[in-house]
Amino acid sequence: MSDRHHHEHGHSHGHSLRHRLQHLLTPHSHETADKLDPALESSARGMRALWVSLVVLGVTALVQAVVVAVSGSVALLGDTVHNTADALTAVPLGIAFVLGRRAATRRFTYGYGRAEDLAGIAIVLTIAASAAFAGWTAIERLLDPRPVQHVPAVAVAALVGFAGNEWVARYRIRVGRDIGSAALIADGLHARTDGFTSLAVLLGAGGSALGWQLADPLVGLAITAAIGLVLRDAAREVFRRVMDAVDPALVDRAERALLEVEGVGGVGELRLRWIGHRLRAEVAVVVDGDATVRQAHAIAVDAEHALLHAVPRLTAALVHADPAPLPGETDPHLTLAHHTAV
Hints:
Helices cover about 65% and strands about 10% of the residues. By secondary structure, it is mainly alpha-helical.
């Protein structure tokens, strides 16, 4: 019933006449300034995280590429390719954040936040491609072993790879959690695993230093397996987001908040969905059947207001008021039953 909110919600939390009149007579700016500014700021933070991590990983991959060229280490080559691919995932995510800032249109009525989910799919495909390349290179080197040159340089490059990836991982995960971006969090976990695979390159370098030529390609295969594990986790997260999965704890939290609203006698169907890194809710609440339209609307506004305070990163909610059922009364939704039957 209500998809708009009070402009100065931070200054009034009661159910006074003035509070209700303001909700009825003024634009409910949880849909406008109060929520638009944080939404734009979250996208801006995501963009900053992407650009900073792109620079750091780019420098890391460049250092490693120079060492690969002079050493011939296939394990370091796999790690370098993976780091480069990780850096390049900033491109689709950046495009998604830019698109997400655009206003909704009559064609894209929910806006362009879903572009972030498409970017997540691109990230998964990038991880899969890097795993395939690393595995193919390692198998080729197993069939044709070659000595690794400049082992100390390979070891230093591996440490550089670990340091760069771990810093980027911490930064991406922190910002991703703050703004609610599953794609950015997954990319951060991806970078963290890259860091540990960089350390694994040290084992290959140590084996080569001891004269065991197979150590380098075997570590390359181990890196491929690690990338595969990351691929599995990233694909699962992206699949859940595309399928509108949410943490059940958020649903519980929303229900508790609604039941505390004065005038809400129960909570019916409650749905939450992610659109990019923002949440949207749809819910039916039970109100007194004798309430006027204005009274029911005011309760719906209060319910939406409570949701916006209780559920992190929720930007809008559509609240429908249902009258409390009376004994012997026909279900008011009966005429819709044949449209919703499975």
